[in-house]
Amino acid sequence: MDSPSELMRRHGLRAKKSWGQCFLHDPSVLDRIVAASSISGDDVVLEIGAGLGSLTCRLAAAARRVIAVERDRDLAAVLRTELQAVPTLEVVEANALTIELASFGDALVVVGNLPYNIASPLLFRLLAQRSVVQRATLMLQRELADRLVAPPGSRLYGAPSVLLQDLAEVRLCFVVPGGAFVPRPRVDSAVLRLDFRAEPRSGLPFERLQPVVHAAFAQRRKTLRRSLESAYDRDPIEQALAQTGLDGSRRGETLSGLEFGALARALPEERRR
Is the domain of 37 the same as that of 168? Predict the structure, then answer.
């Protein structure tokens, strides 16, 4: 397939800066993304943000079926034109923030280069629909990727780290320099592999863990006890700390995912309004 620059020239297009469009052109990086996704001939792949199809054609060569989701009408038209001879490809013109993944089946393999400006909401939209997703290989801004894989005690460790790692095994596969894209972004990217767990590591529903984690990180300079007081009454906090054996003078960023799970289980489901 032709390079993104050649495709844009042929179709009279330019990258939309307001949409954060950057097109991956490095063949070695494209091949590494496919390899990191562990795609087999039995897989149904849903690609988020198919763009000009550089990754799409490689995914189609490896998978049983590819659903290429692209919001931009002009790019969707390019995909239909350039890849019309690929019988296993379906181009869906839609916003990935609103699409229902279950409409394409279950056990999906998701692959995508997430636009920097909507990467976080897209990621949590994917988490909300994880029941129909086996695994996901996603390219994100490196700063966000580093936060998502950060361990307890790291300055980058935060609520997204805890919540994502509770639901999936998260691995940073490799870093992608800005020069691999056209136009070149100002920051580097990184490819993450998410293998979703059959059950959350904490044993708790996302809705039960999330408020405790967010309360603990709401004011990072405060102790765990003081941070939790923004959402819970003092007596239940003290009871939960005693029950779990956690030291209330610790800070939220020092707690492991399992410790957060124990704390959430010990705290009441109802928060203070």
Answer: yes
